[in-house]
Amino acid sequence: MELAVATKAETSKNNKYKGVARREGATFVPFVVETFGGVGKQASSFIKTTVKLAGDLKYRWAPSEVLYGLNEVVAAATLRGNAAAVAASLRDR
Prior knowledge:
The chain is mainly α.
């Protein structure tokens, strides 16, 4: 199943944080990225909504700049996480 790990992580995060979000009157969106860069459905929806709002509200950045920036930040965070996992694995040998 495509993005099975991301889907499971989204469900887990939703269950963990839904009570806090409800108490705070907030909307919680789990932002899940798999090891090889697969983006969870809810994170993908969040990105699309953010890019659309950038265009609708005419923020300082163009929608393409917002999308590029989000992709860049997510890719860098994924690489850092993967590097940390490899480093930890090598230390545990």
